[in-house]
Amino acid sequence: MKIRPLLSLFFLLPFLLAGCWDRVEIQDRLIVMAVAIDKVRTEDEKRNFYEFTAQLTEAQALSGRISTPNISPVWNASATGPSIFECIRILTTRVARQPYYDHLQIIIIGEELAKEGIDRALDLFYRDHESRPKIKLVIAKGRAREVLDLDPKLMPISGRYISTLMEEGEAKTARFPKTSTIGQFSSYFHGGANCVLPALRIEKREAKMAGGAIMRGDRLVGWLSDQEVKTLRWLNGTFTAGDEVIVKNGPEQERNVTTFEVRGARSSVKSEIRNGIPVFTFSIRGEGSLAEDGFDHKPSLRKLKEREKEISRNIKENAEKLIVKMQKKKVDIFGLYEEMRRHQHPYWKQHRNNWDEVFQHADIHIDVVTYIRRFGQFK
Amino acid sequence: MIKDKLTGTQASLQMFAAMVGVGVLSLPSGLVRSAGVDGWLVILLAGGYAVIAVSIMAYLGNRFPGKGIIQYAPLLLGPVLGRCVLLAFLLYFLMFVGTIVRMSADVTKLFLLDLTPVEVIVLGMLVTSTYLILQGVNAIARFNEFIQPLALFALLLVLTQTLRETDFGRLLPVLGEGIQPVLQSFPSVFFSLLGFEILLFLHPFMENPSRGLQSAILAIGMTVVLYALLTILSIALMGAAEVKLIEYPALAIIKSIEVPGSFIERLDSVMMMVWVPFAVTSIVMFHYCASLITAQLLGLQDHRVVSLLYVPIVFLIAVLPRNVLEVERWSQWTSWLGAGLVSLVPLSLIVAYKWRARRVSST
């Protein structure tokens, strides 16, 4: 009697052997590390708006082992189409294997497209379940595709190279802005604020990540130099590591270079309304050590204080310059819109639609204090 | 014939399981959409309301030891009205199970089983939950006792990793728009807390019925804290404007965690792992109560046959809506029905009880 259920169970077993029916072997997958989106340049092709380039990478190549050195493990495949999704699907008419976007690290957007707005181009990446908010976002000066076509030294995959460059750069210098993922961009953009995205320039064999792309909403309206980005990061308190060099214009110019290694910064904004005009006070606190030179081998407390003051004054001057520049452009990149929403809510509600004009006439004060804590093992 | 007994902890975990469900993933979004940055305040408010409702239920339960609403509703309201109330509960439970299964299946399809038909996912979940139901209330309790703390612990552990990038200033200003939006969004938030009403059915199963209120409040407290935490973290990480647009903020905040140092840097699979049991366990109790009601109304000894018979009905409810927005509308109707029942039934029962008690004492 007991044999019958056992037997029927036995016949059911082969169904389990089928395993997962949606599986794709890792060798069959092409991992997409980076994506470049450009605007199609020729105007006569009306239907095609985006030029989409995916950097397809062999999974093996990511581990550093390349089995067949004659076949390149990286392929920048391009397609043009009216939407990003269509471009991705058009790619399958050219690529024989399955691209896999789960590990997408970076999206590079070309200058031309950025000027017309990037929100629609990124829509798919917010929406699709495979993508994550941590994907990095960079604006390229010139064409984004060319960035992927770079053949950098030491690292075979250019997308990986740029992604690593961003991580390293952020840890060591403050020359490009901290807002750098599509999630952060989306937060800013949908919150009605402007932001600054990292900018990237193409050089012969390498990319240079420096400076920022000023985004009004989702449109590129100008560039910031790397020094200006440093100032911006002083202002919003994200200057976590980097350098601040002061060159004094004197007869002995060379000897008067003081290099301050920044170890941390904090910034807070106070806002109030005076006579119907918003007044902001930034207070910046910087901390770090003296990286080079400074005291002619004779350190003293007085000299130290002098240097601190010089550095503070320098930061303050730069900040004021940047703020004036931005007020002329009418782009609030300092997060003051959000500050108003938080602390001056009634005023914000009144002026949220003409904030650019209000920002232009806002009164902004800056107060900087820096501390030099150490100067190394040599006097 | 009630043989199964629940301890206080088991009872509160049951209620916690019923309350925390699919909503975990999408709740912050709806909250912020209606109440802005003050969303988390509304949860606390809704929790307070739930506690009031639950104390009335517990009061009733203690007046009728060993009996659940199935027994005392006809006693108090008369056979016809009492049965109507039970039928309303039955309809609500079946709709609830149907829409919840469908919502979970939609999410599962989006994130986990891309090519599997929704019907198959729905059936898979229903079969699992029905199997559990067939084993009776004690098995459900033991299952919840095992799975809920585990899932909760994993979820909280993962959530700690999001703290690095939070900016709690984004929660400001508190009550910047005044109290009105908070009050207006109250009903929609209250929907997400529905589930505690199973206390009405759970009470007779308790070992120590006087502890019913305590367990219910504990369950509500845990749920409120969990929901408020998720909402606060979502806003602090992404800002209210962004949370509004994101369909599943709880998943989004976990997707934004990067495990440093590894090439594959994702924790959202942990979230899905936590969420699937949350979703399945929230339908179990409703399905069970629905079959209990029917068994009682039809005068059956056992609920098992009924619960099997309900599987096709629930399946139909689950697959009928054509798209995500239609599912949302169905669940809205269900929630209104549920909220109505939860607010009105215990109140009318207690009025009936008082009235009867007075009549008895005066004669």
From TrEMBL, chain B:
The chain crosses the membrane at residues 12-33, 39-60, 72-95, 115-134, 146-163, 183-205, 217-241, 272-293, 305-321, 333-353. Its main location: membrane. The keyword Transmembrane helix applies. Signal peptide: none annotated. The keyword Ribonucleoprotein does not apply. Gene3D superfamilies: Amino acid/polyamine transporter I. PANTHER family: SPORE GERMINATION PROTEIN A2. This is Uncharacterized protein.
